[in-house]
Task: inverse folding
C-alpha cells in the first residue's frame, strides 16, 4: 500500500505550514493533498505558499492534489471552489459543490468527507471521472473490503483513513468563536492557538472530542496499525495519514516501515506511544463496536 | 401560492392526525434502516404505507417517503426495494440522499419524483443545480446551516424548489456529514438511521441529580426539577480550555415561526416540521398552528401572535442558522 | 403540549391509601383479561413492538401504592400489580394521569420526559418502542371497556370509575383536534 498525506485540518501559521511540507518532501509518502479543508477564512493566510509547496513536492517525486472546502456556502467560497479546477493539478472533492465546477470527464479524487458508502456510489463517481477515493472513516472493514473490490473492478484507487484525529462533523457554526463569545464573522482566528484542535472533555473529565473551528474531531487518533494487513489483502491501495503538529515526519516513516513489513503493528503502536504527544488511539470504526474503541492494549494517559 | 406544510409521521396514527389537522404533505419512512428515523416502534410496514398514502390522497394531501440513509455496501438491494415500493405504494416523491441511490432511482424509477434529503447537505446554488441537472431532483431540503439571505440568494439562482426546517429538533452539524454518534455508540444517522440511539442511553438518578450518558460518556447532568434534555451528543455539556458549557449547542429546539414571511419572500416552497419520533398529538398541534400561520400569510392577515409559545413550554427555542448571529 | 410543572393532576394521597388494601391477585387477573381483550382488537400494537414484544415493562404510577407489570407476551399479554418497585427490563414512572395521558394521546412522551414528569429507566429503547406502539394504536380505554366482558368487568369498572373521578383524567381518548 501507498501512503497519502491528507490536508492539514487545523489552522497553522504560514511559516509552520511551509516548513511542514518542506520536511515532507523527504518523507516516504507517495502523495499529498494540500489546501484548506475546514474554513475559508484561513486560506488567505497561506494560499500564496501553496504554489511553492506544490513545486517542492512534485520535484521530490510526490503526487499532489488540492482539496476543496468541506462545506461551501458563501459566494466567495463557491468562486474559490470553481477556481480550483483551473490550478492544473487534481482536485480532491470534499463537497460535491466542487463536482459542479469540474468539466465532465476531468479526472478527480474524492476525499473522506464525501459520503461514499456503497458500490452504486463508487460506480457513479467512477463514471463521472473519479480515479481515487478515500472512504469515509466511519466505514467498517467489511464494507471497506467490498468497496475496494468495486474500486479495483472500476480502476478507482481506494484509500482508507490510516492515522490521525477523525473528522467527525462539520458545521455552519464556529465553536472556537462561540466559546470565546464571538461570532463567526468576527472570530479573530481563535482556532489558531490549537494546532491539533482543542481538547473537549466530558463533565467527569473524560477526553472525548476535539474542537477545530467549524469542525469537530475525535479525541483519539485513529490508527490502522492492526488492520493494515487486512486492508492490503482487501485491495486497499493507500493509507491516509492526517497531519499533526509534531512528530509527523517520524510517523510517516513508522507507517512506511509497517507497510514494508519491517515493523509489526505492536511495534508501531509502541513507537507511537513513546512519542511526546501522548495521543490516545482508536480503530473502532474499522473493527470495533464503536468508533472510539481500540483493539490494542490499553494506552497509558 | 400558499406555502406547503410538510409534516412528519412516525406512525399511521400520526399520519392520519397530521392530515386531519391540515398538513399539505406528510413525510414518513419504512420500518427499517432505509430512513433516518429508524427508531424502535416507529415507521411503516408496506401495507401501512399503502393505506397511509391512500388516506392522505383521499384527503387531498401528499406523502413523501424518506429513503435517506446511505445504503450499506453489499446490501443496496434493501434500499432499491424501498424506492420501488415507495413508487408502487403511490408515494408522491422519494426523499433521497445517496449518490448511488439517486442514480438508481433516476434510471429505474424515472416516474417517481425525487427530492434531495437534508442528509445530502446541498448548501449552495451550484450544488442544488448539480443535483437537479444530474439526477432530475425537483426539490431540495436545505441543510440547517444557512441564513435567510443565503436561502434567498440560492433561490434566485435555481429553479429547484426548496424546503426548509421550521420547527422541532435541530442538528447543529451539517446533516449527513456527522459521525459523532457512531464514534460514541457505533450507530450513526448515515448508516443506521439513528443519532444518539436510545439503546445506548443510560440515566442515573442519584439524590435528584440526573446524569444522562450516551455510550458511557456523560452528556448532561441536571439537578432536581431542571428540564432533562435527551442526551443528544451535539447538545451536551462539555469542558474545553477554561470553559464548561454547551460548547456546540444548547439543548434547544428550532422555531422559525416568526420567520415564515421572510422565508416566503426568500422563495422557499415548503416548510418542514421535524419530529417523526413525536406523538400524534404533538404532530397535530404543531401542524394546526403552522397551517394557521401560512393561511393567514396567504390571506394577508397578520400572523397569529405567539401561536406556538405554548408548544415550547419548558424548552428553549432558537431560530438557528436562519439568523446569521447563530454562527 | 408539555404540561406546565404542577399541571398534571396527582391522584389524591388520601384516596390512594384505600388502594393499598386492593387485592392484587384478582385485580391482576382482571387486568390481564382486559389487556387480552385489547390485544385481540389491536394486534398491530404488538407488531409495532418488534423486538420488544416479549420485554417485561414496569409501569409505575408514582401517586399510587403499586406498580404495574406488563408483559406483552408476543400478543398474549399478562398484566399484574405488585407492591414495591417491581422488576423489568424497562421502567416508565410518572403520575397516573401522565401515564394515562400518554395512552390516550393527550400528552407527548418527549415533552413529558423533558419536563421530568416522566422518568424512564433501564432499556430506554424498549420504553420508546412501547410508547410509539401505544401512540399508534389510538387506544380509548373507556371504549375498550365496553368491548370487554366477563366476570371481572364489574370490579375493573369500579376501579376505573374511581380513577377517573379522582385523578382528573378522562379515560377517554383525547381528540387530536381538540384543545387541551
Result:
Amino acid at each position: 500500500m501507498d501512503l497519502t498525506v491528507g490536508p492539514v485540518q487545523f489552522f497553522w501559521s504560514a511559516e509552520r505550514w511551509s516548513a511542514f511540507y518542506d520536511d515532507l518532501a523527504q518523507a516516504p509518502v507517495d502523495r499529498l493533498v494540500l489546501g484548506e479543508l475546514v474554513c475559508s477564512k484561513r486560506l488567505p493566510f497561506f494560499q500564496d505558499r501553496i504554489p511553492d509547496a506544490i513545486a517542492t513536492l512534485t520535484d521530490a517525486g510526490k503526487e499532489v492534489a488540492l482539496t476543496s472546502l468541506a462545506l461551501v456556502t458563501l459566494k466567495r467560497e463557491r468562486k474559490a471552489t470553481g477556481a480550483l479546477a483551473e490550478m492544473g493539478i487534481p482536485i480532491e472533492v470534499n463537497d460535491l459543490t466542487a463536482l459542479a465546477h469540474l468539466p465532465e470527464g476531468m479526472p478527480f479524487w474524492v476525499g473522506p468527507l464525501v459520503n461514499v458508502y456503497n458500490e452504486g456510489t463508487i460506480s457513479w463517481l467512477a463514471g463521472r471521472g473519479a480515479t481515487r477515493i478515500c472512504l469515509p472513516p466511519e466505514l467498517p472493514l467489511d464494507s471497506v473490503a467490498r468497496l475496494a473490490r468495486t474500486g479495483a473492478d472500476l480502476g478507482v484507487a481506494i484509500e482508507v483513513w490510516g492515522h490521525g484525529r477523525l473528522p467527525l462533523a462539520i458545521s455552519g457554526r464556529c465553536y472556537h468563536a462561540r466559546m470565546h463569545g464571538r461570532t463567526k464573522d468576527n472570530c479573530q482566528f481563535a482556532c489558531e492557538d490549537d494546532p491539533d484542535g482543542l481538547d473537549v472533555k466530558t463533565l467527569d473529565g473524560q477526553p472525548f472530542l476535539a474542537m477545530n473551528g467549524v469542525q469537530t474531531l475525535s479525541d483519539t487518533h485513529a490508527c490502522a496499525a492492526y488492520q493494515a494487513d487486512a486492508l492490503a489483502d482487501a485491495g486497499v491501495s493507500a493509507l491516509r495519514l492526517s497531519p499533526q503538529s509534531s512528530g509527523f515526519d517520524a510517523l510517516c516513516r513508522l507507517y512506511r516501515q509497517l507497510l514494508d513489513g519491517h515493523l509489526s503493528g505492536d511495534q508501531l503502536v509502541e513507537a507511537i506511544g513513546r512519542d511526546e504527544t501522548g495521543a490516545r488511539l482508536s480503530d473502532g470504526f474499522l473493527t470495533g463496536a464503536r468508533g472510539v474503541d481500540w483493539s490494542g492494549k490499553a494506552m497509558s494517559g | 401560492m400558499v406555502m406547503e406544510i410538510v409534516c412528519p409521521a412516525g406512525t399511521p396514527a400520526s399520519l392520519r392526525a397530521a392530515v386531519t389537522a391540515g398538513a399539505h404533505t406528510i413525510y414518513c419512512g419504512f420500518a427499517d434502516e432505509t430512513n433516518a428515523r429508524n427508531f424502535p416502534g416507529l415507521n411503516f410496514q408496506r401495507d401501512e404505507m399503502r393505506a397511509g398514502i391512500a388516506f392522505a390522497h383521499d384527503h387531498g394531501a401528499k406523502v413523501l417517503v424518506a429513503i435517506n440513509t446511505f445504503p450499506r455496501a453489499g446490501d443496496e438491494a434493501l434500499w432499491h426495494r424501498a424506492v420501488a415500493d415507495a413508487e408502487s405504494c403511490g408515494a408522491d416523491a422519494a426523499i433521497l440522499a445517496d449518490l448511488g441511490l439517486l442514480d438508481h432511482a433516476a434510471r429505474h424509477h424515472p416516474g417517481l419524483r425525487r427530492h434531495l434529503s437534508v442528509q445530502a447537505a446541498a448548501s449552495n446554488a451550484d450544488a442544488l443545480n448539480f443535483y437537479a441537472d444530474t439526477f432530475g431532483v425537483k426539490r431540495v431540503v436545505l441543510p440547517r446551516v444557512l441564513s435567510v439571505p443565503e436561502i434567498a440568494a440560492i433561490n434566485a439562482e435555481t429553479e429547484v424548489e426548496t424546503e426548509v426546517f421550521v420547527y422541532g429538533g435541530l442538528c447543529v452539524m451539517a446533516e449527513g456529514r456527522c459521525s459523532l454518534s457512531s464514534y460514541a455508540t457505533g450507530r450513526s444517522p448515515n448508516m443506521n438511521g439513528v443519532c444518539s440511539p436510545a439503546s445506548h442511553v443510560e440515566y442515573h438518578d442519584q439524590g435528584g441529580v440526573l446524569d444522562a450518558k450516551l455510550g458511557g460518556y456523560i452528556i448532561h447532568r441536571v439537578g432536581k426539577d431542571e428540564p432533562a434534555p435527551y442526551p443528544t451528543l451535539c447538545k451536551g455539556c462539555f469542558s474545553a480550555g477554561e470553559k464548561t458549557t454547551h460548547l456546540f449547542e444548547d439543548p434547544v429546539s428550532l422555531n422559525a415561526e416568526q420567520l415564515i414571511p421572510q422565508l416566503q419572500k426568500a422563495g422557499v416552497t415548503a416548510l418542514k416540521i421535524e419530529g417523526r419520533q413525536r406523538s400524534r398529538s404533538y404532530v397535530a398541534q404543531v401542524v394546526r398552528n403552522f397551517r394557521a400561520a401560512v393561511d393567514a400569510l396567504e390571506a394577508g392577515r397578520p400572523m397569529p401572535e405567539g401561536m406556538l409559545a405554548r408548544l415550547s413550554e419548558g424548552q428553549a427555542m432558537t431560530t438557528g442558522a436562519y439568523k446569521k448571529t447563530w454562527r | 403540549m408539555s404540561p406546565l410543572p404542577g399541571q398534571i393532576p396527582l391522584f389524591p394521597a388520601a384516596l390512594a391509601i384505600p388502594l393499598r388494601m386492593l387485592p392484587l391477585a384478582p385485580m391482576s387477573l382482571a387486568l390481564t383479561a382486559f389487556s387480552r381483550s385489547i390485544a385481540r382488537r389491536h394486534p398491530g400494537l404488538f407488531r409495532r413492538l418488534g423486538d420488544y414484544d416479549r420485554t417485561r415493562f414496569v409501569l409505575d404510577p408514582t401517586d399510587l401504592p403499586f406498580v404495574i407489570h406488563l408483559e406483552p407476551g408476543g400478543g398474549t399479554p399478562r398484566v399484574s400489580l405488585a407492591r414495591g418497585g417491581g422488576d423489568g427490563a424497562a421502567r416508565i414512572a410518572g403520575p397516573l394521569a401522565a401515564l394515562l395521558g400518554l395512552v390516550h394521546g393527550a400528552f407527548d412522551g418527549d415533552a413529558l420526559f423533558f419536563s421530568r414528569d416522566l422518568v424512564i429507566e433501564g432499556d430506554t429503547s424498549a420504553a420508546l418502542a412501547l410508547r410509539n406502539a401505544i401512540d399508534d394504536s389510538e387506544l380509548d380505554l373507556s371504549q375498550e371497556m365496553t368491548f370487554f366482558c366477563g366476570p371481572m368487568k364489574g370490579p375493573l369498572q369500579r376501579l376505573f370509575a374511581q380513577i377517573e373521578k379522582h385523578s382528573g383524567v378522562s379515560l377517554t381518548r383525547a381528540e387530536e383536534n381538540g384543545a387541551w
Q: What stands out?
A: DSSP finds ten helices and 16 strands in chain B. The two ends of chain B are 32 Å apart (CA to CA).
